[in-house]
Amino acid sequence: MIKSQVDNLHAPEPTTTLDSRVQQGDAQLINELPPILEDDQQAIPAITVQAPLRAQKITRKDFPQSLELNQHIAHIHPLHEENASAQALYVLEIPSLPEISQHLALLIHASDLQNWQQRPIYLAEQINAQGCFIKYLALLGAENPVQAIHLMNGFTEQSQHHIAAIKEISWENLAENFTDFEALFYSYTQKAALIWTSESYTPFIPAQLFQTQKFIQFEESPADFKTPLLLLKDRQKIRVIHGQKRLRLSGTESAYPYFLLERHHGVSWQLIQNIITQLQSPIDCYQLYEAIQKHISD
Predict the structure, then answer these.
(1) Beta partners for 138?
(2) Quick one: CA torsion of 290, 38, 201, 99, rounded to 10 degrees?
(3) What one-character DSSP code corresponds to residue 283?
(4) Do 16 and 193 contact (CB within 8 A), yes or no?
(5) Do the Cβ atoms of 28 and 41 come closer than 8 Å?
(6) Domain spans, the chain
(7) Which residues, listed in sequence order, are joined to residue 133 by a DSSP beta bridge?
(8) Which ranges in the chain belong to alpha helices (H)?
(9) How many helices and strands (H and E) does the chain possess?
(10) Which of 23, 81, 160, 255 is deepest in the core (most CB within 10 A)?
């Protein structure tokens, strides 16, 4: 299943219209992966949310102790964060699938538990203060994008984490894939509509989806945790063009920020080699990426 999904990694991404309270002008939604042949698109503007939340305290006896997520039973637990009860925000835990906590945290806004499946799921990339990927964060039951943005950013701030981007996805498109990291990545990339990003957003790709060995050797500029990898999808494999120093920063990250180029868009190893020889050493990732894009668009 994963192999066939790699073929569609660069498939067009669905978009959604933001709630009128979220829109600021006619902002275009950006694609999941940086475009190669398309014209530059506007980034989504930063959103300052002042959303009224239901200030009602829900007691444990007011709703079930668990709910069904596909064929799994999820237990509902209160959060210890300040104001979590007033916001009706709870954490979901699936005892039969403890391993999913490595790649996904589940929250539910429990003001209307009976109808959560009729509402979109909000799925986010969660990062730490350095900009490293932690895991996905899914919010069920939110009433609208404004509330989802407010709740998800508020939740991560309690642990000094941040949200890189938030997308909207239906439960039907998520139900079969949330238990597997790679399948969840493809659902997030291909089936979810982007509604909000942080400034200078770069998407993340699971480490197991690309080969870490650098194909063309050249001197790279220094990297930090926000430096993206530059990758090339070559037939059925995704290989590193630029990112050796970025990968050396930590061997424990589950996903990395990335730009993706594709061979069927006219990007060959010979083209990359020719462009590298024209750039001054050491070569910066953004510099190389922009040079390749410029060559393709000319």
Answers:
(1) 106, 123
(2) -110
(3) B
(4) yes
(5) yes
(6) 2-201, 205-297
(7) 127
(8) 2-6, 145-157, 171-174, 181-190, 244-248, 269-278, 285-297
(9) 7, 13
(10) 255
- Retrieve residue 34's tokens: 């940086």
Indicate the Cα dihedral angle 124, 129, 130, 131, nearest 10°: 20
The whole-angstrom distance between residue 159's C-alpha and the CA centroid of its chain comes to 19
Q: Give the helix/strand (H/E) hosting 281.
A: none
Which H or E run contains 185? Answer: helix 181-190
**DSSP assignment of 167-205, as one string?**
EEE-HHHHTTTTTSHHHHHHHHHHT-EEEEE-TT---EE
Q: What is the tens place of the pLDDT at every residue in 259-268?
A: 999 998 889 9
Which two tokens mark 186?
A: 């493809």
Q: Which two tokens stand for residue 173?
A: 């498109």
- Which pLDDT tens digit goes with each residue over 45-104? 333 333 333 434 445 555 578 888 888 999 998 886 555 555 688 999 999 999 999 999
Q: Which of 214, 227, 219 is nearest to 277 (CA)?
A: 219
Q: What is the pLDDT of residues 131-159, one digit of tens each?
A: 999 999 999 999 999 999 999 999 998 88
Amino acid at 61: K
